[in-house]
């Protein structure tokens, strides 16, 4: 099929309109002046009626507005879908934390507030390696609270009436050494249950998250952790 460009299409259109135009001109000039006036009046009245229905009718404008709004909503919906897909594809849908945004309270020495000043009665430091006096596992301290900071329900079985005072003593969060074969990977213990040990390295999958190395006596905190425990 031959290709038709814009100029060729225009020429064909003019040829197709030539015959009706000739017929109209011949009919128009074949009338007397009175008939021409009557036809002109009818054309003007008809054009005014169409214009009135099309442009001066409130119902017509209301229908057009509804159509425009429906198209606009559709376009916006499509744009939102595209935006969500783009964010999902490029991983941009991750929430971005803000410094002034309120953070939910964290228990078990996982709070993100700066632990400063450090009370003198908190003896141990983040990065020190410990041994549990009762269970015998080793681990490394990754956080502390000046007293037990946890929901009451998990604390009740650990602190019966005879040990209620322990809840008001410093508590430490521990990454438990995987080399011990202990069932748990973390622990939250009071100060009196642990003791410090030197020269022992700890193996745990989260060590690099908290520490950058080991100097033989303690682990070196990552910068973000050092900001939370500036005096350790």
Automatic annotation (TrEMBL):
Gene Ontology terms, MF aspect: DNA binding
- Do you know which Pfam families this protein is assigned to? YccV-like (PF08755)
Q: Which residues form the signal peptide?
A: 1-18
Q: Which SUPFAM superfamilies match?
A: YccV-like
Looking at the record, the residues that make up the Hemimethylated DNA-binding domain are 121-222
> Which InterPro entries does its entry note?
Clp_protease_adapter_ClpF (IPR053189), Hemimethylated_DNA-bd_dom (IPR011722), Hemimethylated_DNA-bd_sf (IPR036623)
Keyword terms? Signal
PANTHER family cross-referenced by the UniProt entry = HEMIMETHYLATED DNA-BINDING DOMAIN-CONTAINING PROTEIN
Q: What is this protein called?
A: FBX21 protein
Protein source organism: Orthonyx spaldingii (Chowchilla)
Q: Which gene encodes it?
A: Fbxo21_2
């Amino acid at each position: 099929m031959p290709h038709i460009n814009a100029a060729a299409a225009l020429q064909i259109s003019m040829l197709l309109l030539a015959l009706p135009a000739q017929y109209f001109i011949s009919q128009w000039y074949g009338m007397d002046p009175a008939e021409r006036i009557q036809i002109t009046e009818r054309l003007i009245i008809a054009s005014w009626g169409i214009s009135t229905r099309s442009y001066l009718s409130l119902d017509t404008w209301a229908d057009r507005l509804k159509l425009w709004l429906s198209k606009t909503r559709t376009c916006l919906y499509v744009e939102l879908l595209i935006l969500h897909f783009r964010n999902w594809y490029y991983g941009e849908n991750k929430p971005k934390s803000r410094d002034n945004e309120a953070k939910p309270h964290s228990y078990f020495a996982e709070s993100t507030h700066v632990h400063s000043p450090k009370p003198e009665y908190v003896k141990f430091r983040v990065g020190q390696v410990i041994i549990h006096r009762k269970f015998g596992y080793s681990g490394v301290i990754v956080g502390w609270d000046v007293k037990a900071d946890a929901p009451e329900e998990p604390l009740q079985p650990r602190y019966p009436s005879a040990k209620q005072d322990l809840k008001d003593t410093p508590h430490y969060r521990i990454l438990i050494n995987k080399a011990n074969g202990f069932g748990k990977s973390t622990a939250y213990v009071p100060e009196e249950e642990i003791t410090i040990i030197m020269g022992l390295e700890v193996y745990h999958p989260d060590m690099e998250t908290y520490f950058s190395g080991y100097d033989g006596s303690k682990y070196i905190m990552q910068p973000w952790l050092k900001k939370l425990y500036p005096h350790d």
